[in-house]
Write the structure tokens for this entry.
Amino acid sequence: MVIGLNHYLILAAALFLTGAAGVLARRNTLIMLMGVEIMLCSVNIVFAAYSRALGDMSGHVFVIMNFAIAAAEAAIGLAILVAIYRIKRSVNADELNSLKE
Amino acid sequence: MVVDRRDFSVNFLIALLITNKELASRKYARLRVIYIWFDAGEAAFMAEQFVPLLLVISLALIFALLFLGLSYWLGPKKASKLKKTVYECGIPVRGGIEIRFFIRFFLVALLFLLFDLEAVFIYPWAVMYQSMLDGGRMIFALSEMGVFVGILVVGLVYVWKKGALEWQ
Amino acid sequence: MEAVLFYLFGALLLGGAIAAMTSRSAVAAVVWLIFAFVNAAGIYALLAAPVLAILQILIYAGAIMVLFLFVVMMLQGPTLKSELKSIGDRKWWLPVGAVLVALLNWMHGVSLEGFTNDAPAGFGEIKGVAELLLNKYMITFEMISLVLLVAIIGAVALASNKKGMPW
């Protein structure tokens, strides 16, 4: 059995859905951030797969850029989370509703 | 080249046992077929240097699982309350695992992550530097890296001025 | 062989991600995610991208997830007690599950072709990636630096507080 572009795209799609489901369903903000990381990872796989299919390495450059974006996102996201925790004593997304009122 | 693929595990074990050099000799001509199959002779799907890495990882996994399984299978299992407690250097356990750290550590970890990433991006530049010198583009190479590091030095100065690096 | 490895790594990657998203404790989620990302490195290796495989382990599994672990350890209560019952109540799982099933169905019907071209020599190695990154995508390279600068400033502004910390 030959593995082709579609296999990788389907894997990436399933991974993206997993991450999206995690972000939507979980209330623990930490795990929601992890879901975002999974979604970024699935995008990276799509980049690498198309790069391989087209024989063009430009996709690798964008994956590397995505690594930097993911690291920056994780750093800022976690810093915000810690700042919120310091005030609210909670990482539950349902309890962080001050803006609603 | 037709290779019987039914006995995957046997082929896998044989491929684990022979090295590249032995394969080159005529004595192992028959095994070479199997190795080529293992090496994905059907398509150049993977950089060749990954095959030994894969072998090492497989060996590590096999041995770890084998011995864990053996000790689980052969060893007597007598659980007592004391045995089930958390191991903490042999002294009695004190408190839960949910200890809180001082926030300074967090800031240092954050900054480490970001500057660590910066170091990762210097690596491709270092690889390219010699060929850029040969092409007579030294100023381009240096200014490119100069801008990259310069922007991050601004960040370092900011961090320094904010006093985030001081340990009160 | 490629198919075996793809399904192995793919299943472990997806399984790790699902386990991370459904685990009760945040510590377990982080460890599952590290496992998943190591398998993603395997996927990159299959895609003839060794640089990405190494960077995936170095950056994702090595740095980002360790930071996550650090925060999980720092904040009190990795498990949210109220969350456990609320997961079951959410109706979000239904559309997501439906899409997933539809996707698998489509995968069953669609004809899957392999990569027609072999990867050219030296594809995905550090030399070629660096060449592109430093010449054609020079602006991207400098932008990465800018992104990191913003992240550094943001992190320091958010994480350092002068007004007496409760810890």
